[in-house]
Amino acid sequence: MPKLKLNLEIWRQKNPEAQGSFEPYQLSDIDDDISFLEMLDLLNEQLIKSGKAPVEFDSDCREGICGSCGVIINGQAHGPLQATTTCQLYMRHFGDGDTIIIEPWRSKAFPVIRDLVVDRSAFDRIIAAGGYVSTKTGPHPDANSHLIPKPVADQAMDNATCIGCGACVAACPNASASLFTAAKISHLGLLPQGNPERSKRVFRMVQKMDLEGFGNCTNIGECRAACPKEISIDTIAQMRRDYVQALKE
Amino acid sequence: MNLDSKIPSGDLSEKWSNHKGSIKLVNPANKRKHTVLVVGSGLAGASAAASLAELGYNVKCFCIQDSPRRAHSIAAQGGINSTKNYPNDGDSVYRLFYDTIKGGDFRSREANVYRLAELSSNIIDQCAAQGVPFAREYSGELANRSFGGAQVSRTFYARGQTGQQLLLGAYQALMRMVDAGKVEMYSRREMLDLVMIDGKARGIICRNLTTGAMERYAGDSVLLATGGYGRVFFLSTNAFNSNCTASWRAHKRGALFANPCFTQIHPTCIPVSGDHQSKLTLMSESLRNDGRVWVPKRKEDASKPPSQISEDARDYFLERKYPSFGNLVPRDVASRNNKEVCDEGRGVGTSGYAVYLDFKDAIQRDGLQTIKEKYGNLFEIYDKITNENPYQTPMRIYPAIHYTMGGLWVDYNLMSNIPGLHVLGEANFSDHGANRLGASALMQGLCDGYFVIPYTLGHYIASTPLPAVDTQHPAFADAENSVRSEIQKLLTVGKTGKKTVLEFYRELGHLMWDHVGMARNEKGLKTVIQKVQGLREEFWNEVLIPGEATEFNKNLEMAGRVADFLELGELMAADALNRSESCGGHFREESQTPEGEALRDDENFCYVAAWGYTGQNKPETLNKEDLHFESIKLSQRSYK
Ligand SMILES: Cc1cc2nc3c(=O)[nH]c(=O)nc-3n(C[C@H](O)[C@H](O)[C@H](O)COP(=O)(O)OP(=O)(O)OC[C@H]3O[C@@H](n4cnc5c(N)ncnc54)[C@H](O)[C@@H]3O)c2cc1C
Ligand code: SF4
Ligand code: FES
After folding, report:
1. B381 interface with A at CB cutoff 8 Å
2. CA distance A95 to A78
3. Which of B272-281, B450-459, B504-513 is the least confident region?
């Protein structure tokens, strides 16, 4: 099995207030069939054993579904592979002797907590501003009482697969949260269940997005390129149409 | 201790409706005066928190991730069962109830399981109303597929991301209540102790994982929905941060731990590779709808590439041995058979510990597009990890730890033996006996949270005197001090220790997998108890932990969890040793049928083993809740 020698440049920042900086680290004998995060685990084991502070990073499912992980790898959110979260990136995509620069998501709305860990709670607050159907727990009409054409259901599902990782924000030169917000608006707006609140939802969520300090969308498309779930940029156009409609109402 | 399961009297099919009709209610104005602490934001926690807040209670909800949406439930792939009977293939409440009891190898409570089956249909309606994008037929109606242990198609799904979509539905309901000011959400918090006042659960102590600060929260009831303890094996399909800490600390405060040895090994996971792996990845059971499991007939063929093994040299061993269920036998049966063929030397892949899951016939029959639509994301995950394309070459799979049926003991109202401490979802022991059927954990988590606890919690609150308490009460200071001193102890050792937390964690995992994994025997269990005790002692003398308590410190978090696993691991082995029968996922080599199937001993073991904590390094006491079967006749399980 190929073994790799790596030069890492990693952003270290002790706490939100501290001034951060890049620190160099060397790793050798890295199996190329381990994941990127397992490579960081290995680095941390070495750091701990030599009395140094390990590099803090978020992860949980380690299979691309929870949205916890995410760092900038050589300038790209989640690294070089299309449609892949950081935890799903394997070292076989790097070469022996490579230099890898690792940074946290950079955005005013996602303050750094420590090293590669950022605070993404702004996303929760955007969802709380209407990213739901206002239904209660209780008896409901039979699930089949709403017939939803398969293509519509499939499209809603495409948009619903957003994992809330924040790569779209990190990749956007304006640090806009449009793709994330539009994904939810389009998922719910496409379905009969979500339609009654469509205008109110888009109005509130877009406002919230601005209030949280995310930038404006200027159609650059970097978000779509970084998105591990390949959320369509058409959702943003839909969000705009819905917003204009909401303003009229 | 007398364990009262509080199962209502009357006919099985009427128990829940009678119970609902007779339990006490809290009037809407009074609900506003009560605070409920919900620990966990997975399917069980988020659905409970949202539903209770909608009813008017003040809810505080806690989770360790940075957002409630990231709870481990998000990773569930395959689907959720319900008795809708849309395919008209003969499903009914009784059939789901029967399949689940039988699947659990007759070690669960009839009344709980019946209620689960009864409510399963409401869950689908609830989720559809929230806008969960379930898979649909061209007619616009909901689609179904089949899962193991059933001969009907009753599983609803959203591609291979059912857990994600159901959790996002519950999360959105939760955030709606945050918006309404009825839920306060506390993310990046870890509950480290339960606060008891006058014998009742009245609060929790949390560590703020961002700042390291200790925080106290008081309430009228504590709901634990903190998930399963599969990570005691280190390598498992569970998320990296899944843990037993909340349950275990409650156990140390007196909550009984039931059937800890009942763990589930899932037959279809991507096999282990190398020494640095941090977790294993599931390939959903739904794949067994269309994938065929095989190994070569002859040992000599095991190292050949699959394309060079002709059809007549392949052994489709599940289809051969279990003609009526075929590839869809329950998980425990499939896992044991996978291991058996590998132990015979017929396993494939570099390690020899893998079997093939082959989609060639399905692709030929249904076309590539159909298979892509059904399982596309799973195939992609497989490809990313193994660098192999499963559309072209069969997947290699092997069993891995996946789910824990054991958990804190609860009565029919989901209350533990500690008044006011309720336990929901995978964290409780209630519905799956000795083996959980696929697609039933999502059903149980949502059933507990949406449809059971809103009723039973009201009954507890209405029938219990709950004088106001605040966090200045001495019980809070006591609990906080004990948490602080435990952390201090860890950090004191941690400054000079030699072995990292992760090294201890992996070592414990190996011990547990080797002796308390797929097959267990008396000798191995006795050995592992000693070894775990030894490892625990070593841990408290040698563990190396970086940093301080007053900062963001993931190694410190992990150290606390591993410390708890080192205690739970021993209890699991003790429970497995006590239960000298085989049942479901608990396979005692000493107790098998001539064909090698699990052989139960109903005469001696038809009970729930609920263990009570007696103090550090002391053996726990065993309490038994006898299981009574009124509607179902106990029989040897057969899937032939
Ligand atoms: C890969 C995978 C696939 C699966 N697929 C299926 C499937 O297709 N169908 C099915 O029915 N089941 C499936 N399961 C099982 C099912 O997903 C779980 O059993 C279920 O989701 C558990 O839900 P829960 O709400 O009980 O706990 P979890 O979702 O695990 O949530 C636990 C919550 O508790 C919090 N928590 C834990 N400890 C603490 C603490 N000390 N303090 C504060 N908060 C804490 C966590 O942050 C989290 O919010 C699958 C499981 C896995 C691993
Ligand atoms: S839209 Fe894509 S990149 Fe943005 S949060 Fe969702 S999954 Fe991540
Ligand atoms: S750790 Fe869950 S998506 Fe990467």
Report:
1. yes
2. 17
3. B272-281
Separation CA B573–CA B569 (nearest Å): 6
The Cα–Cα gap between B558 and B241 comes to 8
- Whole-number Å distance between alpha carbons of B629 and B101: 10
The residue of chain A nearest to residue B64, with distances taken between CA atoms, is A60
DSSP string across A37-98 = HHHHHHHHHHHHHTT-PPPP---SSSSSSS-----EETTEET-SSTT--GGG-BGGGS-TT-
pLDDT tens for B164-222 read 999 999 999 999 999 999 999 999 999 999 999 999 999 999 999 999 999 999 999 99
Domain termination site, one of B463, B484, B511: B463
Paired tokens of B219: 């309430």
pLDDT for position B147: 85
- The residue with tokens 């041995």 is B321
For residue B630, is it within any domain?
no
Number of domains, chain B = 3
Angstrom distance (rounded) from CA A179 to CA A232: 8
pLDDT at position A80: 97
The reply to whether residue A88 touches residue B384, judged by beta carbons under 8 angstroms, is yes
- Length of chain A (residues): 249
CB contact under 8 A, B161 and A193: no
Confirm or reject: Cβ of A68 under 6 Å from ligand 3.
yes
Cα angle A126, A154, A196; round to 5: 50
**Catalytic, out of B331, B520, B561, B588:** B331
**pTM to 2 decimals?**
0.97
- Fold for the domain defined by A3-114: Ubiquitin-like (UB roll) (3.10.20)
CA distance A186 to chain B (A): 12
How much is the pLDDT for A157?
A: 97
pLDDT in tens, B578-588: 999 999 999 99
Which of B128, B380, B387 is closest, CB to CB, to A143?
A: B128
Which residue on chain A is closest to B240 by alpha carbon? A60
CATH number, domain of B551, equals 1.20.58.100
Distance (Å, rounded) from C-alpha B305 to C-alpha B392?
12
Q: Which residues lie across from A95 on neighbouring strands? A: none
Residues of chain A with pLDDT under 70: none
Q: Which CATH number is B196's domain given? A: 3.50.50.60
Q: pLDDT at position B275, please? A: 84
Residue B373, domain extent: 268-401
Which ligand lies nearest the alpha carbon of A77? 2
CA B519 to chain A, closest CA, distance in angstroms equals: 27
Shortest-distance Cα residue to atom 4 of ligand 2: A168
What's phi and psi for B89, nearest 5 deg? -105, 20
Say whether pLDDT at B351 is over 90: no
Spell out which residues of chain A touch residue B503, defining contact as CB-CB under 8 Å: 45
C-alpha span between B405 and B428 (Å, rounded): 8
Q: Is the CB of A59 under 6 A from ligand 3?
A: yes
Beginning with the edge strand found earlier in the chain, give each strand of the sheet holding B189-197 in spatial order. Answer: B189-197, B200-208, B214-218
Strands B35-39 and B221-224: parallel
Residue showing tokens 């949980």: A60
| H or E segment to which residue B461 belongs | helix B453-463
CATH number of A120-135+146-248: 1.10.1060.10
State whether the beta carbon of A228 lies less than 6 angstroms from ligand 2. yes
Contact call for residues B269 and B394 (beta carbons, < 8 A): no
Could you tell me which of B387, B431, B384 has the C-alpha nearest to residue B409? B431
Q: B599 CA to chain A: closest CA distance, Å?
A: 35
Would you say residue B563 has pLDDT above 90?
yes
Cα(B617)–Cα(B537) distance, integer angstroms = 10
Best residue in A61, A89, A148, A152 to probe B by mutation, most B CBs within 10 Å?
A61
Task: Select from A32, A132, A140, A208 the residue whose CB has the most chain B CBs within 10 Å, as the one to mutate to test that interface.
Answer: A132
Contacts of A42 in chain B (CB under 8 A): 276
